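Justification of resources, computational component.

The compute hours requested in this renewal are based largely on the per-chain cost of generating structure records like the one below. Each record pairs the submitted sequence with a full structure-token output. That output is archived, and it is also reused by downstream analysis tasks.
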Amino acid sequence: MDALIDKIREGRFWDFPGGVFPPERKAMSNQAPIRLLPLPEKLYITVKQHIGVEGHVRVQEGERVLKGQPLTQAMNPFAVPVHAPTSGTVTAIGPHVAAHPSGLEDLTIELTPDGKDQWCELTTLPDYQQRPKSEVIEAISRAGISGMGGAGFPTHIKVSPKKNVDFLIINGVECEPYITSDDMLMREHAWQIRQGIDVMTHLLTPKYVLIAIEDNKPEAIKAMKVACQENPNYVVCSVPTKYPAGGEKQLIQVLTGREVPSKGLPIDAGVIMQNVGTCYAVADAIFTGRPLIQRVVTVTGEALKQPQNAWALLGTPAGHLLQQAGYQSERQQQKNWIMGGPMMGFNLVDEQTPVVKITNCLLAPDDKLMPELNDEQPCIRCSACADACPASLLPQQLYWHSKAKELDKAQDYNLFDCIECGACAYVCPSQIPLVHYYRVAKAEIRTQEEEKEKADRARDRFEARKERLEQEKQEREEKHRRAAEARRKAKEARGEEDPAQAAVARAKARKSGDGDAKAGVAAAIARAKAKKQQAEGESTSTADNASTQAPDKKDKVQAAIARAKAKKAQQQSSVSEPNDGENKTATDDAKQDKVKAAIARAKAKQQAKRSESEAQPREDKQADLSKEDKVKAAVARAKAKQQAKQSESEAQPQEDKQADLSKEEKVKAAVARAKAKKQAREQKDNDQS
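The structure output for this chain reads:
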């Protein structure tokens, strides 16, 4: 470390690859002191003027604000507020053209000055060394300070690193042609810049502070040496003039010989870098309490009568600054205003484009020195762009892939290591605006990454919500289970039956009942089949069973009467003896009567069997019938019996004619009636069962 510092003190530095040496043209604007300008009619304060997140607007249209009053509130660590540059009224809040190469609109607060320039209450921290570092960092954040060298990174993030710092480099190189704002600031306010360096040294505790200034600024080098002579750890370094020596990575390599890795940060090499304008703003915030509301802007170019450096309030329209410098429209065929230098700046599309925290120059060149570019020519593959690139990239390859929208391949060639210095475009003989293609490709890649990040966040939110709902469901189920268990235990303690268990028991009982019902149906079907088979067996019995129905008491009486009549007729026939012809006739009649009686009994049996067979299937289906259905079946059986009795009564007169039957036939008839009685009783017993 000591050898490195000795080398730096001796003025021996390293070099970076590439680089160009364009005409400086700085003497046009560094011959007069920094000028104070009158207030413009309108101020357009862009809400986001830094890398990070915009703040939340805390004012409303029609509200009067004071100078230095916060207009936005930081809601994110990477957000810094913006403040009112002067007192006045907020007349509009909405989109307005922004200071960006795209020329697109951004959220802007329009302020109409009242001319009173009335300040709000300010808070200072002169004893910052006795205060906690967090309080000092918070004061820097409240002041809305971000890097003023071009990147616009929030300063309060940069002064609170998580790694040790070897070198704090103060960048006062200002290598781009025409621009002299940092040069004039160091000339006129070297002491205040030194105060800002003291505050940052207190926060970062670096081993050494290197103040880098190009050797084409001798007055600024002298002023800073005088301001820093009291501290031996502050080393003012006069570096060789070469564009772009003011680039962050290039300057670190020139001073320390260390290289920042690709996609890395200076802190990875043990270095923190701040611009001289940022140091001035930090001192202003800590010692006077004033937020960042103005900056020095170089207004220069051959189309101006009075090129100068001026204190420009943030939000001042570019047209107002150029008019104050004496813009001569006849020097340009059409308006060609550039915000920034000729190498890294961009053309303005509207003269109402406002000054922001990173605006260091407004350039209006004439047509002779910066003629309108012709249409680009095809690349001749001369490799001049590769020789001039200070980042050791391959601009030709990046150009082809960026133009063809092959963004993945462009990233493979380290597109984001390009610092957009414009050295490649400056030396291109085909006048190809290479940096334009690189910027467009970077913007498209950032847009894709933002969309992917949004989609990832949406997916994460969806999955988190799904997981949360599932967890809540499980918690509810567990809560209900515990509550049911508690109720069950409480009922068991009181000797009550658990409703859930009772319901389960009832369900099981119903299930077993359904099984019993099925078994009952099967048994009924079996009984019906048995009865049917029994009926079929009875139908094959002898035809002598004259009566299949059990005679009741009345039937028995009628049978007795019939027998008595038969006996009486027999006695009468025995008394009178007819002649042979008469006997023959009587015998024939008796035979005919027997035949008729047999036919009548057969018909009666057939009708009885038919009635029984019709009633039997109904009986077989009565196992599961209701009481009403059983009654109907019994009525049907009674009707069948009645019909059988009627048939038997019709056959009875034929029996009366059997008086002359022999004793053997009477015995057979009696046996048949006995069998019929027995079957009737069995049938009755079966019906009753």
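The first strand starts at residue 35 and ends at 36. The longest helix spans residues 434-494.
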